[in-house]
Automatic annotation (TrEMBL):
Annotated InterPro entries: Ig_E-set (IPR014756), OxRdtase_Mopterin-bd_dom (IPR000572), OxRdtase_Mopterin-bd_sf (IPR036374)
GO molecular function (one): sulfite oxidase activity
SUPFAM superfamilies: E set domains, Oxidoreductase molybdopterin-binding domain
Protein's name according to its UniProt entry: DMSO/TMAO reductase YedYZ, molybdopterin-dependent catalytic subunit
One annotated GO biological process: sulfur compound metabolic process
Organism phylogeny: Bacteria, Bacillati, Actinomycetota, Actinomycetes, Pseudonocardiales
Superkingdom to which the source organism belongs: Bacteria
Amino acid sequence: MADTGSTAPADREPAREGRVRASAAALCGVLALVAALAAGHLVAAFLNPNASPYLAVGNGAIDLTPAWLKDWAVRTFGENDKAVLLAGMAVVLLVVAAVVGIGDSVSRRSPWPGVVLIAAIGLVGVAAVAARPDLTGAALVAPATSLLTGVVVFPLLCRAARRSRAAKAEGAPGSSRRVFLRAGAGVAVGAGVAGLGGQLLSGTRDATASRAAVGAVRPAIPAAPIPADADFAKLGTPSFLTPNKDFYRVDTALAVPRVRAEEWSLRIHGLVDRERRYSFADIRERRLVERTITMTCVSNEVGGSYVSTANFTGVDLADLLREAGVKDGAQQLFSTSVDGWTSGTPIEAAADPARGALLAIAMNGEPLPLEHGFPARMVIPGLYGYVSATKWVTDLEVTTWRARQSYWLKRNWAERAPIKTQSRVDTPRGFDTVPEGAIRVAGVAWAQGRGIAKVEVRLDDQPWREAILSAEVNVDTWRMWWIEFSVPSGGHRVTCRATDREGQTQTEDRVGTVPDGATGWHTINFTAG
Ligand SMILES: Nc1nc2c(c(=O)[nH]1)N[C@H]1C(S)=C(S)[C@@H](COP(=O)(O)O)O[C@H]1N2
Ligand SMILES: [Mo]
C-alpha cells in the first residue's frame, strides 16, 4: 500500500488507483534505463570514455564469452562483430527494462521490486568498470551515476504514470492527465542531451589531440624504398603497402583505448637486472628505425583478409631488453596493454637483434592510428599478432611460461605461433564471371622469416604452372604474383600454393585456425563466358 515516502495527499491518492497501462509501465523502465546509461556515458566522457558502463559491460561480456562463441562471431560478423554485440546488448537491455517496468506495475504493492532490479543492473555496470585494469577508482563515479539515475528516475516516472492514469480515471481535466507525458518527455530530452554530449566530448578530447601534436615521425634509419614492381595492383593484387585506413584490425577492445602520449609510459621488469621505465619522449628521442613488415592474424582463414603490410617506425625491442638486462632462466616476454589484454612472446624472438622486433610508434609515416595502438605497440616479424603485436602496450614483464599465461593462451590457442606459409587468389574473385579467352589470375603469398621462393597455380585439373613473382622487398613481407591462362567458357576452378625459400611447399591438408593458424590451399570458382 505504501508509496515512496511522499507526503502530499495528491501523490498518495492515485497510487491506490492500481495499474497503469502496460505500455506506459514498459516506457517507465525503458526511459529510466536510457537516462541512466546516458548519465553514466556523460560522466565517463570527463573521466575516461572506457568508464562508460555500457561499454564496460560489453567489454566484460567479450572477455567472458567462451572461445567457440567468439570464433563463431568473428567468422560470422567479421569486423562488424563489435557493432553486433553492442546492438544485441541494447535489445536485451531494452527488453529487460520494459519487463521490469511492467512487472513493477503488476506487483503494485510497492515500487521496490523494480528499483531493486534496476539497482542490480546498475551494479553489473559498476562491477564491469571495477574489473578493468586500465581504470582507477575515480572511474567508478560513471557507473555509480548510472545506478543512482536509474533508481531515482524509475520511481519518479512510475509515480507520474500512476497520477496521469488516476487523473484520467477520475475524469480530471487537462494538465493533471499529462503529468506522465511531461515527465517522460523531460527524461527523454535530458537523456538525449547527456548521451550526445558524452559522445561528442569523448570523441574529441584527449588522445586525438595528443596524436595530432606528435606530428610526422621521421626515422633516422628509413626502410628501403618500395620498388615499383613490388606489387601488381594493376593486375588485381593488393597494393604492397596497406594504407593505414585499410590495414586489418583485430582486438578485443570494444571502445578503442584512448591514451595520451604524454601520460603513457612503458615499464620493463621481472627477470631483469635493472627495472626500466620509458616515457613517450624517451622513445621518440632515440634513434628510430623503420621496417617494412607484413602482419598476419592467427584467425586468418585460408583466403582471408587478416594480413596487411606497413612501414613501422620505432626502436629495437632487443635494445630495450639489453638495457634492462635479461636474466638467465627468462623464457617469455609477457606484455600487457592499457586495457588489460596480454600477450606472451618467446624471449628469444623478442630479444634477438637479427629478427628486428620493434616497439613501434608510427605506421606509414604517421603516429599509430588510435585503433592500431597509439601511442606505442609491439611488432615482431614472423609471429602471429596474438603472440607478438600488443597494441597500447604499457608493461613488459620478463618471465617464465609457467608464471604467466596470456589472454589467448588461456583460451586454447598455442603458446608458440610462428606464421605459416600461405597464398591467396585475389583476382578473379570467387564466383566472378569473366570473358572467355586469356585471363589474368593474381594474388599474394607470404612466409615471413623465410621468404617466398615460388607460387604455383593450377587451373581445373591441369598441371601446376609457376606464376611470375613481384620484386622481393624483404623476407618478412608478402610477395605478389600473377599468371595468365586461356579459359574456354564454362565453370572453372583455380588453386594456388606457395613454396618458401627453405623448400617447403604449403600443405594441402586443411586445418582450422585454432590453435596455431590455418593450413590448406586457396581455391576459388569462377565462370568464363
Ligand atoms: N591490446 C591488444 N593488442 C592486440 C590485440 C588485442 O586484442 N588487444 N590483438 C592482437 C592480434 S590477435 C592481432 S592479429 C594484432 C592485430 O593488429 P592490428 O589490429 O593493428 O592489425 O594485434 C594484436 N594486439
Ligand atoms: Mo590475431
